Amino acid sequence: MTKPPLVILLAQPRGFCAGVERAINIVEAALKRHGRPVYVRHEIVHNRFVVESLEAKGAVFVDELDDVPADRPVVFSAHGVPKSVVEAARNRDMFYLDATCPLVSKVHHEAQHHALNGRQIILIGHAGHPEVVGTMGQVEAGRVLLVENTADAEAVAPDDPTKLAYITQTTLSVDDASAITAVLRRRFPHLMGPKNEDICYATTNRQNAVKAIASQCDAMLVVGAYNSSNSRRLVEVAQSAGCPNAALVSRVTDIDWSTLDGVSRLGLTAGASAPEILVQEVIDACGERYRVTLEQVSVTEETVVFNLPASLVDA
To answer: What pLDDT is stored for residue 315 in this prediction?
Structure first.
């Protein structure tokens, strides 16, 4: 039987960002320097393929520091941790490596700066996400008010609207964050914001790449973990930009091929914590079912690189 034709529009940029690459490299360099095992508090990034690959090399992922022997290195995930976790590690004289993405650390510094200057902080983000937990944990309890959507923005009640600032989670939908910020600025004329946008370059670029192809696609697949905020946002962006048939898949085995019946143009991208090998799996599986033509659509080239901690550079 002749295979039907399928054009795959590959969004570029897609997949790993500089912060994710740095975090993974920190774990691998720590294993090289210190040997097995190296412990990692929480998933280093939100991707099971990455986690399992590091486990095979000798990484041990734990929920809390209590699960880590005091004589072994521990790595903090790319999402960042509350100050209390760092303090607990120091109190136990643990050797720790901080793999927090530098762009998340930027938001942490903003929160600390606002707190030192007596401002209450509105954090635009998703409740329970590790990055949000880590950011809220940079200042004393009650200093941060969490806002998740425009309804929250309309209802939030700061103690003193004249001493108020906002920061954002780095992996939000750019459009959603703009809508929330607009409400906050309307309600609070004295609201201070970041000098430079908190939503990271990689999140913005991947969303722009999806917008560039969404209206040209009959369907779109986003490769990424179901607990990955930036991956889930890519699905939402695709749907709002003209491709309602958009789905998140962690691996090729998650694809419901029936949703691609009659599709002749398929958009394909990956969240910032998804490796390119998983994208290639999807392309290969499509090749078994269709006569595939690949077209890469690039909106920008990324050149950002984040250095390893000095203690691991020669590893």
So the answer is: 65
What CATH number does the domain located at 5-16+201-298 have?
Answer: 3.40.1010.20
Q: Which of 131, 140, 154, 302 is catalytic?
A: 131
The region that residue 15 occupies, defined by phi over 0 for left and psi between -120 and 50 for alpha, beta otherwise, is left
Residue 5 β-bridge partners: 291
* Tokens (6 digits) for 72: 């072994």
Q: What is the pLDDT of residue 144?
A: 98
Q: Do domains 5-16+201-298 and 103-187 have the same CATH topology?
A: yes
The domain defined by 103-187 folds into Cobalt-precorrin-4 Transmethylase; domain 1 (3.40.1010)
Query: pLDDT per residue over 183-233, tens digit each?
Result: 999 999 999 999 889 999 999 999 999 999 999 999 999 999 999 999 999
Cβ density class 127-147: b for 16+ within 10 Å, e for less: eebbbbbbbbbbbeeebbbbb
Q: What one-letter code names the amino acid at 285?
A: A
**CA 294 – CA 96 distance, rounded (Å):** 44
Task: Write out pLDDT tens, residues 250-295.
Answer: 999 999 999 999 999 999 999 999 999 999 999 999 999 999 999 9
Structure tokens at 185: 């600025």
CATH 3.40.50.11270 fits 18-101, yes or no: yes
Half-sphere exposure at residue 35, Cβ-oriented, CA atoms within 13 angstroms: 1
The first and second tokens of residue 167, run together, are: 């920061």
**For residues 79 and 105, what is the distance between their CA atoms, to the nearest angstrom?**
9
Domain segments of the chain as ranges: 5-16+201-298, 18-101, 103-187
- How far, in Å, CA of 307 to CA of 136, rounded? 26
288 labelled catalytic: no
Specify whether the CB–CB gap between 213 and 267 falls below 8 A.
yes
